[in-house]
């Protein structure tokens, strides 16, 4: 099997491929530069940080990791990151050059005209100056005060008449308060883009001249810290307090990476390394004059429309016409929403109707990541104000969303919503809504089971599936899942749903065994598996055995995949592709031949140890024949992709799956949109 960290780097290289792909519009390529940068930051904050912890344990002999020696893996990561960094910088320079041909110029502070300089000086004085708080390097006592993943300018302060000694200062670039980009619109589709960093560079004299300095050299640097939370197990504290304290500690986590301007003189670099106690053996990366390219994800929409990708506005689902009760529609037939092709407003409409309907008695929901100004949360608050019994499990441990979720938990509690307690040692990752309605003197349940977060912002860029059903067997079990979350360590009985950490791995093992038995009996046997990541060793070995039996296995895996397909005698019946395109492929869908009566499932769970053993997840069957056909067609479209699909772990890394001589080109995300639009 391929090491999971190495496989992840292969995935992020696919993102970089999209930035290099000349068939993509230029500003979309720039956005992929931002996604690649953001992904890499998180990789260091989480995975490299964990490896460094393992490395220390390995040194102390506290653990024995011969197969996955962290020292060897970290060396391999360093080599791969170095190679990718070269391509990353080259790609950005190519995009910049091509954008200049389209009238979009990236300029630095040396290239400002006199008129532009006056504008920038005024903008700096009126806006930015009051938000700069330089730190003199020789006065810095605690390097932990340097913020994680923030951009700093290392400023070399000098006096031309040498009346005062040279000095060094760190200036934090306030990207959280101001746009990273200042745009000069020259008219006639001509734009000049200046980084916020260069606005500060241009005005360093206004910051330091009062102290006698009149010559300034500046170099961009960035630290990345260990972002894993160390959870205090003190039972006398509330879980909110524990998470809040852990977040504070994260801000002072051990450095795992230091990126610096490659043009920085070695003498200046050595001063920094000594100050921050870095050695040459640490993860040091000589980068460009600018850090945090993740800001390109939100680059302003300027220039000609053809510089951006084709706009695909979310459609209203044809089965959910306006001015009709969603409950009456779902009662008659299951509905499957495909995001971002369908509008997320259908979920908001469902919650709004539930909050107003006098027959609705209760609403229960899980929340993992909510939007910044969440209409979902507002709908739940409105339901509580309307006298509904509202229960929410809001996962405070959702990585990098902990502070936002603490805020939402407090807001919901203040409004009378019952917020369920966290589960130590586990995360709740399932995406569920249960609505209990009183009909004909009995309880009737409406359910929503989704593969992705109830988040109206990410629903426009994440490709997910969301099932709306009035199936009472499923509805009763979705309701029971909330009982499970109240009593997490006592497994409850489920027949329709499968629940992790208790039975999801066993469900898939049974389904794979069923295909193996079908093959042995001479019947067609195959499966189509779609998920984000495949790392669970037991399931990988089971897939290998199924392949050896002759079961045909097609896998669509966007991210990490430790399985190696196409090995004769082991995995020759397995094909793995990864699709990286304008939307993030996030859904988990499973189709099994089942001896001519295919079985379909959707889930919140990837095939990873953490999802199967350390999270509460749900796998739900899709029972409606029309929806089964719909899911099958969507999977077939994706398997036919020959524009954005790559072959995974076979031969050369990330080879595109190209169309044959007689084949038409298929870009699955465009084809899926067209397929769903044709059903109107």
Number of strands: 27
Number of domains: 3
Let me know the largest β-sheet.
10 strands, mixed
Instruction: Give the N-terminus to C-terminus distance in angstroms.
Output: 44 Å
The CATH homologous superfamily of the largest domain = Polyphosphate kinase middle domain
CATH C-level class of the largest domain: Alpha Beta
Helix content: 25-40%
Based on Cα principal axes, name the global outline: globular
Tell me the number of helical segments per DSSP (H or I, 4 or more residues long): 18
- Taking all Cα atoms into account, the compactness measure Rg is 27 Å
Percent strand: 15-25%
Counting copies of identical and different chains, the oligomeric state is single chain
* CATH architecture tag of the largest domain: 2-Layer Sandwich
Fill in the CATH topology of the largest domain. polyphosphate kinase like
Task: Look at the structure and give the mean pLDDT.
Answer: 91
Structural overview:
- With 680 residues, the protein is an alpha/beta fold.
- The protein folds into three domains: 4-297, 2-Layer Sandwich (polyphosphate kinase like), CATH 3.30.1840.10; 326-496, Endonuclease, Chain A; 499-677, Endonuclease Chain A (Endonuclease, Chain A), CATH 3.30.870.
- It contains 18 helices and 27 strands.
- Strands 14, 18, 19, 20, 21, 23, 24, 25, 26 and 27 form a ten-stranded mixed sheet that branches. Strands 10, 11, 12, 13, 15, 16, 17 and 22 form an eight-stranded mixed sheet that branches. A six-stranded mixed sheet has the order 2-4-3-7-8-9.
- It starts with a helix and ends with a helix.
- Mean pLDDT is 91; it is low at 232-236.
